[in-house]
Structure formats: C-alpha cells, structure tokens
Amino acid sequence: MDWTFNNDMPIYSQLVDKIKLSIVSGQLPPGEKLNTVRELAAEARVNPNTMQRAFQELEREGLVFSQRSSGRYVTEDMEVIMEAKEAMAQKYIRDFMDSMEKLGYTGEEIISLVRGGKEEDKK
Fold first, then answer.
1. pTM of the predicted model, to two decimals?
2. Half-sphere exposure of residue 3, counting CA atoms within 13 Å on the CB side?
C-alpha cells in the first residue's frame, strides 16, 4: 500500500481513505484479515495511536470488524462495501467537477470533454 501523505488533511483521515480505497477496489477482499495496528503503523511510519484511530473510523463505517482474540477483518457485507465505493466515486466526481468549473468549463463542456477522452482511449 502506498503510504505517502500530504499536509492538507490529518494523517488518520488519509489512512482511512487509503485503507478504504484498498477495500472498495478489491485489493483487500471481503473477509481478509488485516495486519495488526502496530504492523501497519510501522509500515506506514505513523504512530500506532493514529493507526488505531483510523481503524476505529473504519469500524464505525462498517468496513472492518474486530474479533476479540483474532484481530480485524474486512467486512463481508458487499452492500456496505458498494455504498462506500459509491460515496468515494461521488466525492471524486464532485472534486473533478469543481476543478473543471474553476477552469471555466460548463457542465455540458465537461461531459463533452469526458466523452471525447473516452473515445480517444478506444483508439
């Protein structure tokens, strides 16, 4: 997993986003056992408390769950995963639209550009 961070938002939020992306993209499949907080914190070079906070947020969202003596796992509830995937997609779309509007494009022009780019990919 890429553990590159920026200063624009808290580290724990970036950890949540990175782990969530791994779950919704299938890199971490449903039912997969996750490494321990300490292992992941060492890998990401963050404080274990920061990683713990990220896991707590992911548990609150229902994307991971704890089993008392055996660790944390990715949820097997595909509805929860798909809802998270849709929410992430909507955020990416909003961010993209905002950026394009800042460049002066209208909604129709943005759609036209996207369609044109998609056709270029087919060639």
1. 0.82
2. 9
| Tokens describing residue 55 | 């896991």
DSSP string, 67-116: ETTTEEEE---HHHHHHHHHHHHHHHHHHHHHHHHHTT--HHHHHHHHHH
The SS3 assignment for 120 reads: helix
Alpha-carbon span 96 to 78, nearest angstrom: 27
pLDDT in tens, 34-73: 999 999 999 999 999 999 999 999 999 999 999 988 999 9
Q: How confident is the model at residue 123 (pLDDT cuts 50, 70, 90)?
A: low
Distances (CA, A) of 66 to 36, 62, 97: 11, 10, 37
Give CA–CA dist 66/21, Å, rounded. Answer: 19
Residue 50 has, within 13 A of its CA and on its CB side, a CA count of 14
